[in-house]
Amino acid sequence: MTRLSAAVLAVVALAAAVPARADDVAEAKARFRKGVDLYRERRWRDAMAEFEAAYRLKPHGTIHFNVAQCRERVEDWPGALRSYHDYLREVPDANDRAAVRAAMRRLEERLAAAGAQLLLVYTDPPGAQLSIDGKERGKTPLHAVLAPGKYELVVSLDGHETVKDHIELSASGSRVIDVVLRGVARTPASAAAVPDLTARPPVAAPPVAPVVPVVPVVPAPASARPRRHLPVWIAAGTAAAAVVTGAILGWSARQDAAAIDAMSAPDRAAATQRARDAQTKARAANVLYALGGGAAAVGGTLFVLEARF
């Protein structure tokens, strides 16, 4: 992917990834920075090892892009293509998606010229055993370089149903297979039904005609019928809408803040604008939270009043 700027390697918001221990976060950032330095020194394989170590400590989809860049430079075309696929899967809203797609297309053309193509298999949950035409290939997620043609896939995982499928791999491009594995309910051997040979069959009592009392059906008075609590529902709906909207604005504010931290080069104007946007959204979110709390309190009061009167 020679036309994508190497400066993008420094744009990874590790702080926005999944929660991790503080020690892991610090080490992940250190390994990532070391990988950037090694990349600039053109030590591609060493840089790739540092990026992969950072991902294991604190996963973030953008690191796959860095790994793909390193793999391209050591001419590992299948590995680079796999890393680009992982990048787009974990960062679906990436701004450079079109450029990455173009780079992937060039790699697929290289593989096609060699008479091969890439098959990628992902499973939910991961870690399933994959066999292709009866040969074990490893655990998912997994990529395999194959000649174009038809293949039988078998995906198996303990405690889940085995999946068998026939697929065809085209010569023109890579193929991605996603498999959702269904769990299988197991019955412990100790819970198997065992007949009780000591139990005696019940003795049937003589039939007795049931006595059914005749009770007149009287409709309940209007005052005893359940109320609809319409004002309560209106207040509850208002509270829910305010809280959800406030949460969205708060999330957007955090995204703006994360974007400032992720800038690869100083840009005072852009950073100032994002900071203002984040502050405005945060204030609006606080107002909506207050509105939601007030609406919830009103709804609770109305519910109590209706229950009493």
Keywords:
alpha+beta; Serine Threonine Protein Phosphatase 5, Tetratricopeptide repeat; Immunoglobulin-like; 3 domains; four-stranded antiparallel β-sheet; 48% helix; 14% strand; extended; disordered N terminus
Structure commentary:
The chain has 309 residues and is an alpha+beta fold. The chain has three domains: 112 residues, Alpha Horseshoe (Serine Threonine Protein Phosphatase 5, Tetratricopeptide repeat); 70 residues, Immunoglobulin-like, CATH 2.60.40; 82 residues. The protein is built from seven helices and seven strands, in the order αααααβββββββαα. The chain has a four-stranded antiparallel beta sheet, with no helix packed on it. The chain has a three-stranded mixed beta sheet with strand order 4-1-7. A hairpin with a 2-residue loop joins β2 and β3. The longest helix is centred in the last third of the chain and has 41 residues.
* CATH architectural grouping of the largest domain: Alpha Horseshoe
Alpha plus pi helix count: 7
Our estimate of the beta-strand percent is 5-15%
What would CATH call the class of the largest domain?
Answer: Mainly Alpha
Q: What is the topology, as strand order, of the major beta sheet?
A: 3-2-5-6
Low-confidence stretches: 1-18, 190-226
CATH superfamily of the largest domain: Tetratricopeptide repeat domain
Which structural class do the helices and strands define? alpha+beta
Q: What is the residue-mean pLDDT, rounded to a whole number?
A: 77
H/E series, N to C?
HHHHHEEEEEEEHH
Distance between the termini: 73 Å
Helix content, binned percent: 40-55%
Globally, the shape reads extended
Radius of gyration: 31 Å
Count of discrete structural domains: 3
Work out the number of β strands.
7
Major pleated sheet: 4 strands, antiparallel
CATH fold assignment of the largest domain: Serine Threonine Protein Phosphatase 5, Tetratricopeptide repeat
